[in-house]
Amino acid sequence: MLLVDLFRAEWSALIRGLLSTAKLVFILNLQERRPRMRSSVSVIVMLFSLFPLAVLGQHGGRHGTTGTSGGTTAPAEDSDVATFKDAIAVQATEEQVAQFRLMIKSTEAAQQQAHDLQQLGSNASTSEGLTSKASGLQDSVDEAQRENRTFRQSLSDSQEAGLKNLTRKLTKSDSAVSKEAKAISKQLEQRTVNSGRLVSAAANLEKALALFQTDQLNLGKEMGIQSH
Prior knowledge:
- The protein has helices at 2-32, 37-59, 79-89, 94-123, 127-153, 157-162, 164-188, 195-222; strands at 65-66, 72-73.
- It is mostly helical and 228 residues long.
- The chain folds into two domains: 2-89; 94-222, Four Helix Bundle (Hemerythrin (Met), subunit A), CATH 1.20.120.
- Strands 1-2 form a two-stranded antiparallel sheet.
- Strand 1 and strand 2 form a beta hairpin.
- The longest helix is centred in the N-terminal third of the chain and has 31 residues, at 2-32.
- The termini are far apart.
């Protein structure tokens, strides 16, 4: 048992040292966004996969824990290693980073137009100006949601699995945006535009868009994408 404990202590120390080095490589490449980032990540993953086998090969079966079948039981995977592997699995590609920027930009534009509509509603002398601004807002919301769908469709199976809690929140806030956008459309369908109700609907839409953007940013952060 003493030899087993000694082996486990040695293995834990070595794997943590390798983990620290791998994390440093990953963070530096992630910040610089160099083309070789993904190849570096692949090398790191390969090292983590081969490392336990190499250690076991050096120590032999005599330091392992022998079961009833006579085989050697390998130590359980370190939790830090598992966490690091999960982070690699959801890492954004260069194409996804570019699409993310477009998505955020379009959401910000829709937010700004919702804000502008509220300001105009308080000072508009004619309903034509409000109607035109509200129609432009609808177009901006449509574009923001379209860019969001494009980004979501770019996620791989492993990214979907690792980010399911965040994507679930984003789906919910996307639905809230659709709901508030419909309220704008309903006001535009009236023969006479009620500026008070239109301004109120624009305020609700701006809040929904703000939450929508927050969920987008949280998703991007988890994928290693800098917000700016």
